[in-house]
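User: quick one
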Amino acid sequence: MQTQILERMESEVRTYSRSFPVVFTKAQGARLTAEDGKQYIDFLAGAGTLNYGHNNPKIKQALLDYLASDGIVHGLDMWTEAKRDYLEALEEVILKPRGLDYKVHLPGPTGTNAVEAAIRLARVATGRHNIISFTNGFHGVTMGALATTGNRKFREATGGIPTQGAAFLPFDGYMGEAVDTLDYFEKLLGDNSSGLDLPAAVIVETVQGEGGINPAGLDWLKRLEKICREHQILLIVDDIQAGCGRTGKFFSFEHAGITPDIVTNSKSLSGYGLPFAHVLMRPELDKWKPGQYNGTFRGFSLAMVTAAAALRTYWSDDKLERDVQRKGRIVAERFQQLADYLGEKGITASERGRGLMRALDVGSGERADKITAEAFQRGLVIETSGHDGQAVKCLCPLTIGDEDLLEALDILEASVKAVF
Amino acid sequence: MQTQILERMESEVRTYSRSFPVVFTKAQGARLTAEDGKQYIDFLAGAGTLNYGHNNPKIKQALLDYLASDGIVHGLDMWTEAKRDYLEALEEVILKPRGLDYKVHLPGPTGTNAVEAAIRLARVATGRHNIISFTNGFHGVTMGALATTGNRKFREATGGIPTQGAAFLPFDGYMGEAVDTLDYFEKLLGDNSSGLDLPAAVIVETVQGEGGINPAGLDWLKRLEKICREHQILLIVDDIQAGCGRTGKFFSFEHAGITPDIVTNSKSLSGYGLPFAHVLMRPELDKWKPGQYNGTFRGFSLAMVTAAAALRTYWSDDKLERDVQRKGRIVAERFQQLADYLGEKGITASERGRGLMRALDVGSGERADKITAEAFQRGLVIETSGHDGQAVKCLCPLTIGDEDLLEALDILEASVKAVF
Amino acid sequence: MQTQILERMESEVRTYSRSFPVVFTKAQGARLTAEDGKQYIDFLAGAGTLNYGHNNPKIKQALLDYLASDGIVHGLDMWTEAKRDYLEALEEVILKPRGLDYKVHLPGPTGTNAVEAAIRLARVATGRHNIISFTNGFHGVTMGALATTGNRKFREATGGIPTQGAAFLPFDGYMGEAVDTLDYFEKLLGDNSSGLDLPAAVIVETVQGEGGINPAGLDWLKRLEKICREHQILLIVDDIQAGCGRTGKFFSFEHAGITPDIVTNSKSLSGYGLPFAHVLMRPELDKWKPGQYNGTFRGFSLAMVTAAAALRTYWSDDKLERDVQRKGRIVAERFQQLADYLGEKGITASERGRGLMRALDVGSGERADKITAEAFQRGLVIETSGHDGQAVKCLCPLTIGDEDLLEALDILEASVKAVF
Amino acid sequence: MQTQILERMESEVRTYSRSFPVVFTKAQGARLTAEDGKQYIDFLAGAGTLNYGHNNPKIKQALLDYLASDGIVHGLDMWTEAKRDYLEALEEVILKPRGLDYKVHLPGPTGTNAVEAAIRLARVATGRHNIISFTNGFHGVTMGALATTGNRKFREATGGIPTQGAAFLPFDGYMGEAVDTLDYFEKLLGDNSSGLDLPAAVIVETVQGEGGINPAGLDWLKRLEKICREHQILLIVDDIQAGCGRTGKFFSFEHAGITPDIVTNSKSLSGYGLPFAHVLMRPELDKWKPGQYNGTFRGFSLAMVTAAAALRTYWSDDKLERDVQRKGRIVAERFQQLADYLGEKGITASERGRGLMRALDVGSGERADKITAEAFQRGLVIETSGHDGQAVKCLCPLTIGDEDLLEALDILEASVKAVF
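Assistant: Done. Structure below.
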């Protein structure tokens, strides 16, 4: 395995190649193959970008056909067949059946770009500047988005410039079971000297991804929506990681029966790992003037092609939804067993999540790292998240076959038992 | 032509579909085809993203091969064959022959992301916060990059939040021929109460793109480099639009014989219109700690595949360079003739640029819009830039055939003469 | 009473002249005299600036003597007899007996200036930027201090610019009796993705003044000090309103037995209503370089003369302390009776405070305003505070005679009973 | 001379006591007396705070009378006789005769507070955030004002936080005689991608004080006013140092025949060295809501008493104006002779200024320090200013007697000749 040039030329900022120091060459479905031919089951799946697996054949065909036809690959934000088809698929397959009426903003093809566009729109539309984010929230690292991202690792790498325009509040459950953290939010809102500038918007992940797979309670989300409505605060659901079916519904907020004012999607939106993002917004919020937010790769055509294929293939009926829920229960059960096993060994552990966005929390990053390192040796790519990296995380493809799923869970079990 | 859904669902922020209100379906080389079969020669080329033309066959083959082999499409920043191959091509074809020693940071696949990473690194590496940008500079619209972008259109769409951490200075020529604007910069630096915080970095386009195709003088650039060295200021060349051969050299700064500390590339870097960006930095500046700057689509594999193919195809010898310079002279000559023609009609006009990054400045956006609208009717996609949109802009594919080039210039000439 | 010129020429920003629309001409001790000869007992006392009463004769004599001698009135921060004498009095009468070792910074003569200097020093000394403030905290309105002040009234009058460099946490009791708000602070500190940038300092009022006379529990303050020590966070006690004896000790933090790293004093520090402020800091924190923080009126000589006289007159023994505590009990008892009375009338009311910094909370600003308006008619100047103005506030001179005190309390009682 | 306690207890931030390391005890007119009895002529005069000299007997009497009568010393912003009398004097003696119609805001009693209030009002009144300041401008050090202050010494002492909401432009003459720096301002304003956010206001000193006694040309000021009017930019003249007669007119902008929208005064406004400041504004700009900007010492009564006395004593006729102009010519002539002398010694030097705000620029701070140190030994307190401290500065009392003036100039001459 030739890695010298990779080690020499790539910036020290690189991270996953440190956890998985092999050169990957091929991938199919839930499996990655390294240069030496060794296969790995992928429980990371591009941090939630590959919900339909690697190189999904149905989506691939659409991509190859489009390329073969010399369709428009890059056209800034001009009108293309690909864009029209994407909007049609989005409306017919996703929005209409859910009774959602949104306009679509196609910013640069990354999640952070969608978040920047969303919070800027919220400011323009409300005339307020403050954005509420939550403890352990992650919404990207460009400066506007970073203001809403909780991780010190990123926040301290600004060269000392404080972020501005956002304030953090405790996420659901953050202060223990006895405290409804929205009581605190409501008190701050109603208090003229609380220090909380009246917010333009709240940005929330219904299940926090990088923060440790923390699902907000459905009642908490409903109450959050209600508070926002009462105070003319826009509700932004950042569904970049939890969306596109990861929790067992296309939008993660469907579980709670709420309707955000603004939604951001990216990661699995293209369905094939291609960079893509959009912002959905209630039509009356579309206060953008032509060209006020731009970017060279806004509306990436190939991604719109694969996204339309993915939507039509997987979301025209409820098969995938039900399958995700079923597999989610399998993972939950196995994680719970591992938590119980660890409990017997004197290690406090627990499982949590929604759909196939699940975590086995082993209480410390040190422990979690031991488990994931062992798992990698045994053929499973799996990562940690959470403020201390304490949560071993299942983000496997939603389309993973049962055989692969069970093999992966077996590897994880063996790894836990080998280590503790 | 069915455009209702496009008009109904896409945000009002859309812009190019207003100038070119047709649905494009196919493209090849320098030609776009609309749904009604009408062909257009493309003098916009993705705002400089399609230097090798639409669906360039040599690059396309590499992409199709990679897709066929089920190579890794998305792997966060793991090691892949595609990344290794890209780094090898970059080193062998580009850096070594030019005597450049840079490390590579692969941030999110957009220009603004590369700029955010570059200026943040400059702050971390120097312990200073101030970034110098220039009048009419454009470096992206996420909040960190926006601080260095001059356009009020974007700056006023932040919802009232002032950008922070940057200061603007006059670009070369901004104060007329009699003033060397770097005299002002040097005076500010040497003056302890000038109001200029000692800069971490200067970020500069050697030929300003969105600002109106303004080439900085080569001596001015040399002096800028010298001033930076003397004051421990990092020199960042934002080569997102002017790089990848646009000016007749791979890096636009080669003309001036300077060596930036940090370089940003994007747009044509992938060679096929795929989202991609990198930051090059002197190795000793690589102060990043693992994972301090992240993003889901950092190091987009398909783009690395096409980028490597583009580099090897077009930059292993100096053919393209010479061809760009030759065609640049043709465009310059024709633009000068048009400027002369307009002068005879009493309209002050001029041509300027470097390589195939050229403008015909007609003095007002109103005039320029009339010309480009007429040209579109006649089959030429061409746009304006500059603070008032006063510069009709040639950003055609570098690989455009002479026939297409001359036809496009004929259309432009006819358009100018039809309008004035 | 001639008020036209006052109404015509003074900015609409004026506020107390709206509550008390008479022209005051003279004052002595706890009594103000208006132009028409009517006398008022002063329970506002310059919002805590006149702890020793109006025109206190002992302090006045020192001032007159100094003026008569043509001592230095204004000398920037040059050395003067007045400054030396002030530092001697401060050290001998206040610091040494309390075992405190502080250096003294004499910034501009206002509280907000002292706060700006304190938080800037904390940033310079720690290399961190974040300042923790608390809900309902008030620390001044210049932009640096405003970041730590909770009132929307001021925060919304910045012309839309967000303040920066501070974060708000819940003050003691803010989330109800069941929640120790410092649990939340500790959790945020220990959580790497909480969104809380590691603080340079905490700034706290031990009894919040403008926020509604909210005393922090003494155990809460002790724990706050402990948390700060454990995380290398500087503890700033803003003792501008609660200091100088107001709570029954010279420094309000003496009750809790804590030792702040930095202390700000102003308001009653001069003892005569003259503008004056200082910042006390542990000697090792004095990281200022010469002249890094300046201001024309730093170290106002006349104020240092009166301050030294006030310290020597009132703080050489514990008489005043004991007297304040005694009178505080009287006020507390009478306020409690009024709360009980209101309770019987179906109005939830309560009393709270420390020493002679006390409030009768009547639940709403509307009610409180009725009471204070009535009291003014009956000869008592008294104001409200709190986020809704719901707290009728006793800030009478500490030196008020028992007769005046009781008469004022009688007026207040009559006013309450007249209104409800 | 006992200085231990001063050296031990006062923060290292102290500065003037380093240049003049004696303890001053008394002062009268233009003369300071140190503890050892040595007298010094005062060419610093509180950095322009003592325009009427130390302990001016006419003003002193008003102060003593008010103190004797037990007038209100501190009343927040309540109505007092002192305030009414001050407003009357201001209107009758100053505003009416000059045809000026301003409302008065009495913020905290310091210059920086007045600047904070002025720029905040400009933002509120215009809905824009950007404030234009000029190279070498000084407007105070609290965070809001600091954004407009050019000195790195202060700007670098924020603990790394960048200031926000202001941009610097070159002051008159900054780019040499050939460049009218307002051409640059106008170009930036008219250019939509210049990077200059449309300003709420320009803040300018007509003669820069701390920046080195730099007088703006009168035509430049007129053009600046015109540009502001044309672009709906408010013109703020910061007349804190140059106002109150220092330049030979009460307001320094009278020379140019311009009418600022907002004026700040402080320093000599009280006439006796007492902390005091006001903001004057065109009545229609008074967008303050009650209480939106506050501060404990706003409208300091004693200062209003002395200020009224000073205005009536010195500004009821034009005697002082003419006298300042006459003495200014004397100083100018002597400074020019010194500049010529230095020129003969091969040292490039020059004189500049307006009225009694004058500088002898000796080209470097090192040289200037030698001269002022020598002068201090010989009995003259005189300081330097400018970005390098290169300008030996005359800010003597306007009321200085000719004998003292000439003696001081003789000392300065002897000092220059002793050193060079």
